[in-house]
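Researcher: First entry.
Model:
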Amino acid sequence: MTSPPSRAGRRCHAALNPLHSLLYFSPELPREMAALGIGEQTAAYLATRAAPMGRVGAGAVSAAFYSFRPGLVARHLPAVWERPRPAAVVEARLRAADGVLRRLLGDRTVESPQMAEAAELALRAAHGCRPHGRTVYAANADLPTPHAPHLRLWHAATLLREHRGDGHVAVLLREGLDPAEAMISHAASGHGQHPAWLRETRGWSEEEWNAAQARLRERGLLAGDGRLTEDGVALRKAIENETDRLDRAPYDALGGDGTARLTDLAAGFALTAAKGGAFPSEVTG
């Protein structure tokens, strides 16, 4: 089995991650959370993503998720666990994933041989993940693997997304970028989500956001027009390359051919989902 070429893991992640994250923009998830007594959007997101870790509090979630203002997290956690048990949230998010994938992809695709193939490839990659120091990944890895192929794929995409994300946080810490600085510099690279949407959904005030921009300018990473300087571009490139290095294990386990095949299959599913309106324009517009 040959190893995948440079950046193959990053490309595979880019194809798979939308199949995980589309859940958070779906109408199915708020309906499931509302049925559990969680009606506020931020509370629903935090509970959905944190539930595999159990009755975790604001400090641990702020540390693990990294990008959220701790005060925003503390408004919802641990109070959210006074309503449903974390296990009930885990079950509800899987029901929501089933609903949104069937709606966006259609039953024929969900039940296709290609879906089953993608699920098994993604799970094979996930089995190569390394749990040490990766809190969110490890919590999800403790969950049982669903039976249905499209849910197996969603579960595997979640594992691979959190594995990469945990490693990415470690790199941000090494490079001395705090949460707001990390989001601003990523958005300025042209590859991140819309900065206004990021600031609002992560709870940072305009003053805090402006202060983070000023710190980046003082480091010579951000120009006055909001674009990255040459040093800023180099830093973001180094961050992504080091994240790739820390995330090689699952794709080495899958091999070059398997990684390429999974990328193709996942990209096709993700494109269909995007054309079906999986992601609102304000996220990237």
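Researcher: Second entry.
Model:
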Amino acid sequence: MRKFARWGLFGRTFLLLTLLMIASLAAWLQAFRNMEIEPRAHQMAQQIVTAVNITRAALVYSAPIRRRFLLLDLATNEGIQIYPRDPADRTEPLPDTTLMQWVAARITHQLGPNTQIKWAVNDMPGLWVSFSIEGDNYWAVLERARTERYDGVQWLGWGLAALLLSLLGAAMIVGFVNRPLSRLARAAQALSRGETPAPLPEDTGPDEIRSVNASFNRMVNELDRAEADRALMLAGISHDLRTPLARIRLEVEMSPMSEEARDGIDQDLAQIDHTIGQFMEYARPPVHTEELIDVSGLLERLVERERAVSENRGGTLQANVEPGQWSRIDPSDLTRAVVNLIENARKYGHLPGLPTQIDVYLQARGNDIVILICDHGPGISREERERLVRPFVRGEHARTDASGAGLGLAIVNRLLAPAGGGLDLLSREDGLPGLCARITLPAYKAARMGSGIQTETA
């Protein structure tokens, strides 16, 4: 049931139609069989009765000297053999099927109530029918093929042919219905990745599909306009806020006040400027790219730069980067995401009085690339980990630091989303105290051919 729930619309609809057609065809064949069984039984019984009557008449009216040749001719050409009937004969009754019971009833009705019909006598198979001639009892033995020639193979062939044609028709119908929905689903997926999908057709297809396509196209246009308006508004807000901040900073520098007061105001202004920068970064639309980048090389360069920063601040940064890992993501987005996580580890990932220790890993896991940025700090609870990736949420330890707005991890998640990546906060896998921020990206294989790069999913 879970596997069926993960099937697409085409698979589900086609499977349901297939089951419906199989059930309908089976019901139709059973109904036709029930309606057809009585005339079949009547025809078979009439043929058997005719054969027995003709055989008896031939034996009665033929000369005794010619009866031996008559019996030989009946056995050779008509498949009818005659045996004397003895009360000590071992008999086997007819099969207990509706058809055979109806055939036996009609034969008994026409040949008399004392007529016996057996499926085998003295272990000799056949259709045995008793009759009498001048007080002598005989068996007329007919081949079973007279009753078994209606074996149903022909009906099965016709049924399978009808089912095959029905399935082909169902596949065409489901494909016709599913095609516009698949196009709409692909457009919605492209929109969720930050792309602008091509307009859906509004002049073809059923009225309902055209209406949905028109509504979707209007929604895309409205989102584009809203995105443009938001970018313009944010640019204006940034300019309108940072311009007076620059004037205030200049006036503070020129005003006669103590160094302590001037430093406090500078710190407040820097905090405001940093918060404005975080808002702008979070509000920036995500970037989707088809460019394939060497994640291993980019991370190695970042690690070298951030290692120098950590050492200047009295800490350490160690890395283990698996080479040859590629993915599709904007390089600046991945750089900002990794730098944000390393900066978080520097701020909060150490115990009081101890230097900061940061471990960075890159490794391939199945079809994904995993980047781990781990610290040796106090760590956080599972409940708080799930909460911290939401915007405007800050951890208990971070609330003593007034330099952020609780957008750092949310910005990382937003930067990774267009590439199909994600962020998780986990405990360290090696059992040491601390926290690991895990970045997951789809992995791709790259092979250089000439001057270009050929790619495929890993």
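Model: Note on the second entry: Residues 234 and 283 are 8 Å apart (CA to CA).
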